[in-house]
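Incident review: delayed structure delivery

Summary: a single-chain prediction request sat in the queue longer than the usual turnaround. Root cause was a stuck worker, restarted by the on-call engineer. No data loss occurred. The affected request and its eventual output are reproduced below so the record is complete for anyone auditing the incident later.

Affected input:
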Amino acid sequence: MQTCKIGICSRDPEYGASLMMALKRISGGRIEAMVFSSPEVMTVCLAVQETELLVLDGWKKDTLGSEFSETGIPVCMLTEQPSDQGIYKYQSARDICKALLGVLQKERSVSSQPSGCLAVFSPLGRCGKTALARALLQADTDQEGLYIGMEAYPDRLVHSEVLYLVKQRSPDLYEAVLREQTSEEGYRSLYVSGIFSELQDVQRGDLEWFRDQLLQPGRCRTLIFDLNGASLSDLSMLNVFDTIYMPVLPDPVSQAKIRTMRSIFRERKLVDVLRRMCPVEITEDVLRSNDPDRIRRCLFGTGTAGEA
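Output delivered after worker restart:
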């Protein structure tokens, strides 16, 4: 089960504390909330505390300042009257909990049959990254998706001319893709490189051109790139992808490393990357099962990670 971390900034500390406890109880552990007494206190805490959604009660968004907007954290307002501008604060705590989970689900925007240009990315090894990428593709019953292995240190030898053709903007690229791709367990796969220096030579324009060539009508509907921390010369290249899935193991060390990576994104002002990022908590039990359906259920809003 994935826990959503929410910050509540309320002018009424008693209401904020009550809401925090109610959300924890009603959500059954799906929401972990913190209460801040002012935007100033909140800003200091958010520098070291991971938060996926901020709820403002009695404060306006413009009180947060320009620095907060660079964190990429979405903001939800609590309103004194029913309104489509936020969540009505005097309705039942159960309804508020449901509304907040809905906001988080919309932010992450996970589809059971994804399409477009997606990435599964993690700075960690053995975290379920490749298993998640493959599980997403196996949901594509039309088999119009393509797994693209771009790990700097893959578990196999890779001999490919694809990246050379990309750098040359060659009209022969798609023919090479068709020639080199293989079929694995209901999806197509393509490994484009296993050489660190070759991957580091890929620029954002190369990746964008590669994406655009493969997503042309009649070619691929979905691209899922399998990336690790050494795959890209510049982390801002993650902006090429519509959604970035980041698998997270529940152990404290893995959680801490992921928090560090997200802090790096904030320090480099990669707000758009953070907004595209969808953390997916995967348990060791699910990884060992190697069951695509169980892995897909780890996606937020589609089930519990440990379900059979």
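Verification: The radius of gyration is 21 Å.
Action items: add queue-age alerting; document worker restart procedure.
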